[in-house]
């Protein structure tokens, strides 16, 4: 059953502007960053207007109100993913969140850590942000990095999972939804294999948390990250969720004010999680803005968000199938698939596809999508990618399909 969310477009002021050639904006790049509703813009702006002060530091009214707003945001984000308040760490991005985990696990003073000879498992679908930190952790510690592959149709290949996740595996770090294929991975199945050997599980939820319901308890993972700017929220704010007992066992990766319990000239001790991971004055206004984004998404209903994007994906896949010379890179059906669709146009470089579409006001992503190993395996220089959120509608899909036909005409693609 489809869900009509077309009326929500009016809540996003960016769609009031015109772009190249006086065209209305058709924004199909939410996989890179989402647009922001008025309520989020106002929440961040009002923080600066009315309560701006450093949180957890002053005894005056503004500091008290700022701290309350910040901690309320933490509680709201925790509820959004089925977590506890003291399990949410605010960072500047999902990338930073992943690096915080990697550095903490590489610290020999952490009560859980990665050592020489341990195995770290990722997938060939990973965004660089969930690959390079683990590469570097393996390099620093002498651990071994291995990976699960993918099938020809863009699904995760679990045929050899027992050979990849073994008794030597201490950490499994996977994406929830591929930012190239749109594939939703079977997290529970992979987590079960990790649990069987006592490995920790890190989940990159950047492409999932903004688009369908997330519950960390159901997923059975140990850490989860996502970014605010992809979830209708501000830039400069990321989320790191971790089980509280695990967070307490990890050493922080960044040091400074606000995260200490006691300091002498020779040593220091840390306050409890989550604040021991939040050194310095945090991203206060951005956290408040993210909380407003969570309110907005909750008001729409994450099930409705998922249904809406499912319908858009269905229409785009059907439209692309009708155009000769266009190949979808990823699953061709809707099973375990999100609103990210990558494609190629025969004989036309993805950047050229994107530039022609831009002339008609259609914004898509082109290139390797921070997934070079995946592209190399596919023997592609890149793809053109359309990705959705709640402000998109069927007219956007139709304009993209029409735009692709114009790309073919411009480059005289006859296939």
UniProtKB/TrEMBL annotation:
CDD domains: SufS_like
Keyword check for Transferase: yes
Any GO BP annotation: cysteine metabolic process
SUPFAM superfamilies assigned: PLP-dependent transferases (SSF53383)
The protein's name in its UniProt record: cysteine desulfurase
Gene3D superfamilies with a match to the protein in the record: Aspartate Aminotransferase, domain 1, Type I PLP-dependent aspartate aminotransferase-like (Major domain)
Cofactor(s) it depends on: pyridoxal 5'-phosphate
Enzyme Commission (EC) number: 2.8.1.7
Species per Swiss-Prot/TrEMBL record: freshwater metagenome
Family: Belongs to the class-V pyridoxal-phosphate-dependent aminotransferase family. Csd subfamily.
Ranges for domain Aminotransferase class V: 26-400
Reactions catalysed according to its record: (sulfur carrier)-H + L-cysteine = (sulfur carrier)-SH + L-alanine
Keywords, in A-Z order: Pyridoxal phosphate, Transferase
